[in-house]
C-alpha cells in the first residue's frame, strides 16, 4: 500500500530557530488543526470567483453555488456512509454540532458521557439543561463497555443519549464505538459519536458502526476553519426547535390578526442552518472528503500506523519519557500521543522543541481537563484558566500538564525523526 504524504499547505514554510538559522516547520499539532490539503485549496480557489448566495438568488452564480452546496452535502453523506433518511447539517465545527444536538434532544433526555471526553462533548448537555450521568474514566475498553452497561441498566425509563469520542484528542486511543453503540441500543439509548479526531485518520461508517449521529470539524479534516458537520437521524432534529431563528430556516412567516407572528419552520437540514451558509467551508469539507477517499483510507491508515509504530518505539527508548495511555501501553491509537518528560516542565519542553528544532506541538490540558488529570495521577484541580492554558509545573515536580504530538496524512517521516532526535 504505497502512500506518500498528501500535499498540504505550509509544507515549505521556513521558521527561525533561536540560533538564527531557519528550518522547515514540522507541524506536529494536527490534533488541534491540521494543515489544509493543497487539493482543497486548489478546489476552493477554482470555485471562489464564482460563488454567490445559496438558496436565495435567481442568478446563474447563485444557482451554481446552491448546487455545489447541496452536492457537498451529498459528498459528506457518502463519505460518512449515512443511512437512508439521515441528514447532514453544516455547522461551524464539532463544538457547534454537539451544542446543536444538545438543544435538539427531547426534554427529559438523560445523557451519559465518560468524564474523559473533550469539553466539547462533555459540557453542552448540562449547559442545555439536560441531566447528565458522568461515567468514571475506564482503564480498558472492556471496562468502558461494562460501565455503560451498568449505568444504563439502572437508568429510569425515558429517552437516553450516549456521547462518546471515536479517538481521544489526548492519548489518540481508539474507543470501542461499535460495542458501546450496541450496548446503548440494547438499553434503548441513542449514540452521538464525536469523530473530530477519528474522521481525519480512519474511515468512518455511520451505517456499520450504528451510531445515531456523528460530528466532526473541517479544520481537523484538512479543510479550513469555519465549517463542521452534524449528521445522522432526522427525527429528533426535525422535531426540535431550530438551532437559530432566522431566514432560510423558515417555510412561511405570517403576521396574525392578533398582532403576533406565526412561523412554520422547515424540516431537514435547513431547519438548523438559518442565515447565509458557509458555502466555501462546506465545499472545502467535501473536497477534503473526496481527496481522502481517493487517496484511500487503507493506504492512509497503513502509512500512519508505520509512523505511530516508529514514534512509540522511539519514545520507549527514552527512559525519561512517559507516554500517557488510558487503556494501557500498546493500545491502538491514531496519530495522536501525549507524554511527559521527567524533570521537564511541559511548557518549557514544547517551547524548546519550537525554538531549537522548528517543531510545533502543543502542551497543556487539551480541553480535556478531567482526562489529563487522571492520566497524570492528579485529582486536585490545577489553577489553569483557558482551554489548555499551560500550568506551571516545576522541574523535578509532578507534571501538571502534558505535551501532545499529533500528525496525519501530510506528515513526512522526517518530522517524526526530527522529533525523536529532539
Ligand atoms: N472533540 C474532540 C475529540 C476534539 O479533539 C475537538 C477539538 N480539539 C473537539 C471536539 C472540538 O472541535 P472544534 O474545536 O473544532 O469545535
Automatic annotation (TrEMBL):
Residues 28-419 form the Aminotransferase class V domain. The keyword Translocase does not apply. Keywords: Pyridoxal phosphate. Signal peptide: none annotated. Its cofactor is pyridoxal 5'-phosphate. PANTHER family: CYSTEINE DESULFURASE, CYSTEINE DESULFURASE 1, CHLOROPLASTIC. This is Cysteine desulfurase. Transmembrane segments: none annotated.
Amino acid at each position: 500500500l504505497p502512500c506518500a504524504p498528501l500535499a498540504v499547505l505550509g509544507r515549505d514554510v521556513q521558521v527561525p530557530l533561536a540560533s538564527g538559522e531557519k528550518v522547515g516547520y514540522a507541524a506536529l499539532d494536527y490534533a488541534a488543526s491540521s494543515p489544509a490539503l493543497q487539493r482543497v485549496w486548489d478546489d476552493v480557489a477554482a470555485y471562489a470567483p464564482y460563488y454567490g448566495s445559496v438558496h436565495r438568488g435567481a442568478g446563474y452564480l447563485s444557482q451554481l453555488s446552491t448546487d455545489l452546496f447541496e452536492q457537498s452535502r451529498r459528498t459528506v453523506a457518502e463519505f460518512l456512509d449515512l443511512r437512508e433518511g439521515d441528514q447532514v447539517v453544516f455547522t461551524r465545527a464539532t463544538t457547534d454540532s454537539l451544542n446543536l444536538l444538545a438543544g435538539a434532544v427531547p426534554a427529559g433526555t438523560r445523557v451519559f458521557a465518560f468524564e474523559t471526553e473533550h469539553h466539547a462533548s462533555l459540557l453542552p448537555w448540562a449547559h442545555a439543561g439536560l441531566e447528565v450521568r458522568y461515567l468514571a474514566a475506564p482503564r480498558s475498553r472492556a471496562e468502558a463497555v461494562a460501565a455503560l452497561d451498568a449505568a444504563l441498566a439502572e437508568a429510569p425509563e425515558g429517552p437516553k443519549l450516549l456521547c462518546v469520542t471515536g479517538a481521544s484528542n489526548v492519548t489518540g486511543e481508539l474507543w470501542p464505538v461499535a460495542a458501546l453503540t450496541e450496548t446503548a441500543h440494547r438499553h434503548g439509548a441513542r449514540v452521538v459519536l464525536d469523530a473530530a479526531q477519528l474522521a481525519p485518520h480512519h474511515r468512518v461508517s455511520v451505517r456499520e458502526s450504528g451510531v445515531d449521529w456523528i460530528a466532526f470539524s473541517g479544520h481537523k479534516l484538512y479543510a479550513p476553519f469555519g465549517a463542521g458537520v452534524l449528521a445522522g437521524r432526522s427525527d429528533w432534529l426535525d422535531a426540535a426547535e431550530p438551532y437559530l431563528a432566522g431566514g432560510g430556516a423558515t417555510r412561511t412567516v405570517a403576521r396574525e390578526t392578533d398582532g403576533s407572528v406565526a412561523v412554520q419552520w422547515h424540516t431537514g437540514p435547513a431547519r438548523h442552518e438559518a442565515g447565509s451558509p458557509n458555502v466555501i467551508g462546506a465545499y472545502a469539507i467535501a473536497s477534503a472528503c473526496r481527496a481522502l477517499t481517493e487517496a484511500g483510507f487503507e493506504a492512509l491508515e497503513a502509512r500512519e500506523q508505520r509512523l505511530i509504530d516508529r514514534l512509540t518505539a522511539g519514545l520507549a527508548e527514552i527512559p525519561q519519557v512517559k507516554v500517557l495511555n488510558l487503556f494501557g501501553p500498546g493500545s491502538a491509537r491514531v496519530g495522536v500521543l501525549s507524554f511527559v518528560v521527567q524533570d521537564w516542565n511541559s511548557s518549557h519542553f514544547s517551547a524548546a522543541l519550537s525554538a531549537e528544532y522548528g517543531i510545533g506541538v502543543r502542551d497543556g490540558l487539551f480541553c480535556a481537563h478531567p482526562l489529563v488529570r487522571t492520566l497524570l495521577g492528579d485529582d486536585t484541580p490545577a489553577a489553569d484558566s483557558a482551554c489548555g492554558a499551560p500550568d506551571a509545573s516545576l522541574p523535578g515536580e509532578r507534571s501538571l500538564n502534558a505535551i501532545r504530538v499529533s500528525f496525519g496524512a501530510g506528515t513526512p517521516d522526517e518530522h517524526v525523526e526530527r522529533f525523536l532526535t529532539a
